[in-house]
């Protein structure tokens, strides 16, 4: 990626934050005061180093420094698309083999974790425009289809189709329920307001 392309990507990240967060008043506020954006920027530099011969250790050290500064841990080997927004940021963990599509939004406390100790694809893949609610956990090499929503506190251990609404422990997909069902009625906004205990 050229320097101009990198700068364009950074500007996109700022616009994504302003699009997703109504509290973001100006671009300069996002640049100076949004740790989720800072974490993504740190990742973008670390990822470039990770893919360069002989720079894996500096990439890891940079990612750990960014973790210290922001409370967000993104392994430099993860593959992250454009316009990722991490709201609040604190406690987010994204593993080495995780893959994230474009226009994804993660809230604080989200874990994209692994279950295997082998050197293999062991972290989740999120499609485009996925929203993952606060403190949700997605484990293993599962795939979450585009335009899906993962409710706050959910624990996802299985693949999910496009447009899924995943809630509970373990998570199940409510997107196929009738729109007038009581469970669908509780989903005013699953990224924010869902109580996963209801679905255990």
From TrEMBL:
Q: Which catalysed reactions does the entry list for this protein? A: L-serine + acetyl-CoA = O-acetyl-L-serine + CoA
Q: Could you tell me the superkingdom of the organism this chain comes from?
A: Bacteria
Enzyme type, top EC level: transferase
Record key words, sorted: Acyltransferase, Amino-acid biosynthesis, Cysteine biosynthesis, Transferase
InterPro entries in the record:
Hexapep, LbH_SAT, Ser_AcTrfase_N_sf, Ser_O-AcTrfase, Serine_acetyltransferase, Trimer_LpxA-like_sf
Known EC number? 2.3.1.30
Q: Which GO terms describe its molecular function?
A: serine O-acetyltransferase activity
Q: In which pathway does it act?
A: Amino-acid biosynthesis; L-cysteine biosynthesis; L-cysteine from L-serine: step 1/2
Family (UniProt): Belongs to the transferase hexapeptide repeat family.
NCBIfam families found in the cross-reference section? cysE (TIGR01172), EPS_EpsC (NF041874)
Give the protein name, as stated in the record.
Serine acetyltransferase
Please name the source species: Herbiconiux daphne
